[in-house]
Amino acid sequence: MASIQVRNVRKVYKRDTQEVTVLDGLSLDIPDGDFAGLMGPSGSGKTTLLNLIGGIDAPTSGDIIVGETNIAQVRGPQLARWRSRNIGYIFQLYNLIPVLTALQNVELPLLLLKMSGKERKRRAETALQLVGLGDRMSHYPRQLSGGQEQRVAIARAVVSDPAILLADEPTGDLDRKAGEEILQLLERLNREFKKTIIMVTHDPHAAERATHVHHLDKGVLSQ
Amino acid sequence: MNFLKLVLVNLGRNKRRTFLTTMSVMVALFLFCALGGVLDTLNAAIEVGSETRLVSRNAISLIFPMPLSYRERIAATPGVSNVTIQNWFGGQDPKDPRNFFAQFAVDGKTFFPIYASDMEIVDASPPQMQVAMPSGMDPKLASYMMERTACVVGEKLMLKNKWKLGQTITLAGTIYPGEWPLTIRAVYRAKNKSFGDETMFFHWDYLSEKGMGGSGSVGVYVLQLSAPDQAADIARKIDATFQNSSAATRTESERAFQAGFVSMYGNLPFVIRVIGLAVAFAILLVAANTMVMAIRERTNEFGVLKTLGFEDGTVFRMVLIEAAAITLIGGSIGAIGAKLLIENSGFNAGGMLPPMSVHWRTVGTGIGVALLVGAVSGLIPAWQASKLRIVDALRRVN
Question: Please, is A5 exposed, middle or buried when counting C-beta atoms within 10 Å of its C-beta (0-12, 13-18, 19+)?
Answer without folding.
Answer: middle
